[in-house]
Amino acid sequence: MLEIKNLHVSVEGKEILKGLDLSVGPGEIHAIMGPNGSGKSTLSHVIAGRDGYEITGGRIIFQGEDLTGLEPEIRAAKGIFLAFQYPVEIPGVPNTTFLKEALNAIRRYRGEDELDAMQFVKMMREKTKELGISDDMLKRAVNVGFSGGEKKRNEILQMAVLNPVLAVLDETDSGLDIDALKVVAEGVNKLRSPDRTTLMITHYQRLLDYIVPDKVHVLAHGKIQRTGGKELALELEEKGYAEFGEAAA
Amino acid sequence: MPNNSSHLPFVGAFDAARPGLPGAGLSWLKDFRETGIERFNALGLPSSKIEAWKYTRLKPLEDTDFQPVTDDDGMAALDTVPSLLPNPGGRPRLVFVNGRMRPNFWIEGDLPDGVHLDCLRDVLTRNPDWAEAHLGAIAGDEAMPLMQLNKAMMDTGFVLRVDDGVEIEQPIEVVFIGGLTDRPVAYFPRNLIKLGKNAKATVVKHHFGQGVGAYFANAVTEIDIGEGATFNHYTVQAESRDATHLSTTHVRVAKDATYESFNLAVGGRLSRNEVSVRLEGEGGHCGLNGAYLMRGREHCDNTTVIEHLAPHTSSREVFKGVLNDESRGVFQGRIVVHKNAQKTDGHQLCKTLLLNTGAEIDAKPELEIYADDVKCSHGATTGQMDETALFYLRSRGVPEALARNLLVQSFLGEALEEIKQDDIRQALTDKVVHWLPAACFLSEEWRDA
pLDDT tens, A86-119? Predict the structure, then answer.
């Protein structure tokens, strides 16, 4: 499903990922944990295709296809979704407009019919109901004036609408209190499916109390240092990342 | 140093043009025009040595031999009228083509009693005393060469008078179409707007260019807003790509009166929107807003002066610019708070989005405050497109071109929101959207930057 082989990535000439290997099967949830500065966010951005991240070696294979050089919107159309650590505020653009443009662009790319306004509204109602999100959020400008929790819920809503094959959640737990975290985790769990692979990127173990991963990887110094089951997260919680040469957080 | 008259445009042509100009038989107007051309001749074209003209050079006026328009130019064939507003109910509309009023496109509309809408030429014929009393009453600055040139050459324009207490709900649309001539022409609108006590009116002006080739529009608008009255003034400058558009607007705002304006510029090779507002009475307010979108080598200048002359006056100014390619923007915004204008509340904001490394903005906000109990703020920012926001949109599947469009619209939203009337805001937003597509496909170079 997702195969990353010996990936080297530089940002502004500085090598951040130094030979990262990762293999995630269909329907699996993997957690990538690591200290600050280990390359976690770089990994998520490079999977989604952000400009400015130079792949100097290795490959990212998604559903048998090398993603290198593909534009972010093409990756989205192929089924990749990145939930942002800091969702961006876009004043003046209503959430619904944004989502409708996004969904229909993806549908066009896939050769599917675009949804008209009525079909789209109907679908949005179903999604918001399923996730317990108020319709009010749809009318507001994208993330403008949203609380931290609302922003993250909006990410989950977008994910529900775009229905990706691979969801990368970048520090989804950051900046959330425990109640907001539970709500967001519940959303992710509702969207769990054998057809969806999820990569959770996080510094802390607490998110994994609510979204239980199949595997946990420790990323440090630009490489996966260890891979284990969910118990590895608990071990990290106890010992910190000292073992990987970083101060405990 | 005054320029030698032989080098100044129009000075030589003035005598020949004069018999054809409106109100040719009026002796006071003859003197009025002569004073204008003499002053213009003495001042010369504004040079960069003048502070207010530091960033804008009137090169097309130096290089092109513009000729005054003729009646034939005014009869150029027109397929459709580029109305900004949908016109289901017969909204009042005046249409000028190369400075000539076209009666067959004039919609008188359903104007209430006490509203007088005419073209300048008719007012000079039918009501010359009123014209004599009001021409130059608001815009009389003898130091402004372009105003003096308009004073001499004015050949078109409209007059709107609204009597005390009369409110017009429907916006009045005035369309000025330029171009469609076989040589470079110039026309000189002079518009007079006078609102009586507690009157209310809205005017939407559309300067629109058709065809190719250079032309020059030099407009002066005088607006006198009586006590407690409200005037909403929206302008779209969509001149053609070789046009020069220079517009000077002077506004007097009386006690408890309101002037709300928005100027959207999307065209013209060279354009300048110069506005001067005098808040003369207590409780007077002005909203002076605008947006401009430029591309190619277009140059757009917004120069504004707001004078707070009485206590408890307020002003709000938001200008947003989007500059692509090698276009250039100028924003000069001065707010003057005079000594007795205590409790003044003035806010000014100027933001520019540069879509290309070749584009340039010169922004000069200025506050001059002589009163001690005031609340004033100003800010000017310039930036490039937010790469994170762009990535955010694209990561959701929005194609890059569309994502850039959405972000430009998002950027301009803050200014367009100042337009309180929904249908007009929508009309101007449509103009923005219409401008966009070429802007979003530019950008290999930009992405690498």
Answer: 999 999 888 988 999 999 999 999 999 999 989 9
Of the candidates A72, A101, A103, the beta carbon closest to that of B391 is on: A72
Chain B residue numbers with beta carbons less than 8 Å from the beta carbon of A52 are 387
Report the residue of chain B nearest A92, measured CA to CA: B410
Give chain A's domains with CATH numbers.
2-244 (3.40.50.300)
CA A23 to chain centre: 16
* Binary contact (A73, B400; C-beta < 8 A): yes
pLDDT in tens, B67-85: 999 888 988 888 888 889 8
Instruction: Work out the burial of residue B247: count CB atoms within 10 Å of its CB; fewer than 13 is exposed, 13-18 middle, 19 or more buried.
Output: buried
Give the Cα separation of A95 and B114 in Å (integer). Answer: 46
Q: Which residues pair with B179 in a beta bridge?
A: B210
Name the E strands within B328-387: 328-337, 345-354, 360-369, 375-384
- Cα separation, A55 vs A60, in Å, equals 10
Specify the residue for token string 């991240």. Answer: A53
On whether any CB of chain A is under 8 Å from the CB of B163, the answer is no
Select from A84, A92, A102 the Cβ nearest to the Cβ of B397.
Answer: A102
**Separation of alpha carbons B380 and B367, rounded Å:** 13
Q: Inspect the interface and report whether the beta carbons of B391 and A81 lie closer than 8 Å.
A: no
* Angle CA B445–B446–B449, to nearest 5: 90
- Helices A148-162 and A178-190 pack at an angle, to 10 degrees, of 0
Of A48, A84, A91, the CB nearest to B410: A91
Task: Determine the Cα–Cα distance for residues B318 and B416; give it in Å rounded to an integer.
Answer: 9
What are the tokens at B339?
Answer: 């000594």
State whether residue B27 sits within 8 Å of chain A by CB. no
